[in-house]
Amino acid sequence: MRILITGGAGFQGSHLAERWHAAGHKVTVLNTLSRQALENIKHFPEGITIVWGSVTDREVVEKTAREHEVVAHLAAHINVDQSLDGPHDVVAVNVDGTVNVLEAVRKSGARLIMASSCEVYGHAEQSPVTEKAELRPYSPYAASKAGADRMAFAYHKSFGLDVTIVRPSNVYGPRQKSGRGGAVIPIFANLACAGKPLTVFGTGTQSREYINVMDLVEAWDIILQRKDLNGAVLNIGTGETPSIREIADHVAKRFGVQVINGPARPGEVPGFRLDGSMMKRLGFTPRIKFWDGLDDYLDLMAPK
Q1: Strands (E) located in 141-265
Q2: Does residue 141 have an active-site annotation?
Q3: Which of 121, 141, 155, 172 is catalytic?
Q4: What digits encode the pLDDT tens for the residues 35-59?
């Protein structure tokens, strides 16, 4: 199968590219050029085609998407804090970029599997949250993902595109970005490795449902192999919802550093759990327990 992965040199996309290449698919990656992307593609075997460019470039997207049977759309700005500082940039990539991908798919006739986010649900009134729950995004990032999510569904309804929308829980694992614009687990790990204190914003009771990137790749592979998911929306989770404080305390104990408190962040959701029963019916069962996966990740990050 000929597959294009937007964001395929990013954290999740690079693991997915390797998995599908190993399965015998012809994989093309479209990604912006960055230091992180260059580090990630060092893991690529020969045979994965790389196109440097942005989904905000309509011409590049259209040309790259040609002659591909499937487009897996993962390219996005993914950080809540980044969206608070620069919402225009986030909307340009997450919404306008998605429209470019949808237009390219409409012209090429490819199937689209699109990465949305659990953040689109906002603070759900009921938990676990099913795919039919109202979207109530709290942050500009979450709103941009909700907009892209619903635009993809609109293209399915308006133009008959073969679209599957994936709403994963929070992902963690090797190659995840740290520092500014990064995720909390690699941020904690890098600070702890440097002997610095970990900052928990707000009360620390806010929880997140986490999935290891290797489990997420398994879920994507199941979706790829199915031919009956046109128009489907799928939660991908594990049911494990540790609090930020619990994670900080665990990392701090491993590395002998302190945990300090900071002010609450605007737009942060208290937490909820996804209903993953639809993916379970498709045969997906997460294999990596959160605390085991976290310890494996910390082992990789620890100074040698």
Answers
A1: 163-168, 170-172, 198-201, 210-212, 233-236, 259-262
A2: yes
A3: 141
A4: 999 999 999 999 999 999 999 999 9
